[in-house]
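Appendix B, example 12.
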Amino acid sequence: MNKTCVLMRNLPLWVGMSAILFTVSACNGGGSTGTSDVDDTSSTETAEVIEVGSCDDGTGASGTFDSSCVTSFDESVAESISRTAEFQAQTRTVSSEWTGLGDDIESNAYSDINLQYARSVGLTGAGQTISIVDEGFLLSHDELDGKNITLYGGNNAADHGTYVATIAAGEEDGSGTMGVASGADLHLTAWDDGTGSDAPLSYLAAATLDAAAIGAVVQNNSWTYVYKSNDPNSDDVTITLSHFNEAAAVNPTLSSEEILGNSVTGSASDWADYISSLETFAMQGVIVFAQSNNESDTSASVMAALPEIFPELEGSWAVAVNGVPEYDSSGNISEVHRVSAGCLETAAYCLTANGFTYGGTASTDSSYSFEAGTSFAAPQISGSVALLAEAFPSLPASDLLDRLFASANNTFFTSTDEVDFGNGVTHGYNEEFGHGFLDLKAALLPIGSVGVPTSNNAYDGVTSLASVSITSGSAHGNALSNALSGKTMAVYDSLGADFEIDADAIIGSSSDDLGERLASFRSVGAADRASAMSYSFMDNGLAVDTGGFRFMSGPAGEIGGDLGFMQSGKGLFSGDSSIMSHSAGTMAFATVRKRGGRGFSAMTFVERDDADEIASAGFGFSAARSMTPRLTTVLGFTANGENGTALGMSAEDLDDDTLSATSSALTLSGEWAHSRRLSFFANAEFGLTAANGAGYLESLEPSMHTAFGSGIKVHEIFSDQDRLTFMLRQPLRVEQGSGTLRLPSGRTQDGTITYASYDVGLVPEARQIDMGLRYDFGHRDATSFGLGGVVSFNEGHASGETGASALFSFRHLF
């Protein structure tokens, strides 16, 4: 069932086994030779780049990432790519002769690894270099001609090397087939140096160093050493790790390099140089070795298992085995039929791919054949590393390999052990399939949780975007979102990979609590007019003499309005009307003196949050005067200190630093009582806010704001206890101000988070205008009703936005 391709000269076997020789063997299993029955003349569809889609934050909870997240895939684009001629060239029927099943299996190696998803986001491996050590290469082949190729040493065209290079990086040109990383460059080394004779290990070491010097991200090795039998009826025997261990047990004083020199080829110094070159390459790239094709092997190929001998190689090393998957009715892998040696001792760094492929051969520039073996599973892994290197340019190669391991499909087997990749990401494997089947779709998506870094290093884990989100206050409208429109920021997954999202995803918007609005709306009725007259400056209140200073307390929204500081609309309107909080939980304490048509007030107010902590506290002074018996004007000054907000804006911070602000404002109010039943009022506020930064909101410049309102009140329309109020207002709006946002932008190779600073304006694009109508009426002294509605133009200070709401209240005192 498994065949080997003997490519290098036979050498005498040590330990006195005169009938068996060893050689380098390609890791393909031979297979039928033929031409593709796929129509290569069909058109190639262009991949569309999809950058932003939908996913969650790994917790399953709803939040920011339900609406804005990182890379996702357009299934229709992926499907169209999988139907192109070069992709479909990999489609073949794997006979039961190979699988041992009663039925044949329809197979497409590229579809099995979800290559179409990488293509759907434009990934081809462009800018990356794949190093291949193999038999010689036909450089003029249609799949290789025109590529950027660095050839090390001599070269003679041969099928095996040409085929492997085709699978790794064959051209995507609409004919024949294509490589997994069709846009990647190649560094090619013929292991015989073009001489037809076995090149020494020193040559392979020099080739490996040369590949490292030009920055190759992966080296593909679809070969191993075997004991070559002189008996044509006997199979070749893979030189395995167990052979090495047996030799080491017999010769405990010898070094690993000496044992390899005695048992495989070359000298101890040759092996020392070769291992050193692999270590050098592993510092920047991934090394891929194909496992043996002998299904009956009980120990891994000694070349694939070199990290078991030299542990310093592990972490940048991958081993490939060959398996053909079957799928259930939902399209999930239900079973994989292994047609090579298992992963065995290399299970912790081993992957499975479908080595039944269609690739270029060296017969002519346009010759192809169907072949099978781990030789052709390995370059799929190598090409995948190149694709991930393009997708994640800031990740070191070892991280790219971790992504392939941690995302491999292992649902079709029972894991016997697992690798802990950190930050809660573990992945199970077993000795047959390693980590499972290569899955590019999963490797490109976030692994584990996705969010913002908890420190300045991407490997220290992430937390949700909500933990550093910035909530825009109603006075700022959509200014911050507009300022960040078209800009990006980075979020990270549990393995430290950075993903791009729209930067405005960090900006939330404040919303008024409907319960508080209703509480405020029903707390005031027409029956309150008489009691308010004793301290109010408005509604002809200066006609009442207090006879000295009078003290009172109550909701700040009510007392502040009566003393001329603001007109909040008593819950009818959403959004702030002043720097003075008028939420239902804000209490005010005031003293008032009115005499001879003049009035003076001093007030303090405190707002508490849900945790009963002080959210804001301030004070105000107002002076009122009757200009005429029916006209009252009020001049006021207020100051407010906010803890956790700045004019309603909040910024979360991982270190619990909070935004704080100090605001001050001048207020001007007036009311004209045209008659006992009809009055007109107006008020305006002009202020300045100074705030510190917190979280990603690095700094805030002082900002100026305004608010104004006017209205008409009509009393005693249908009874002596009703009132109709019409109001026109502009809620609090920033007129001038800016800030600086410092957002994650990526990472360096060592995981250090990089940041980008953005200057953002705080002035919203439009001016919200509210028109409201409220009718209050009472029944006796114990019962009152309220009915109101409001229409908002440019709602949220956003151009063209319109909103409306209606409120109804009923209150009865027992």
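The first strand starts at residue 5 and ends at 6. Confidence is low (pLDDT under 50) at residues 1-23, 29-70, 525-531.
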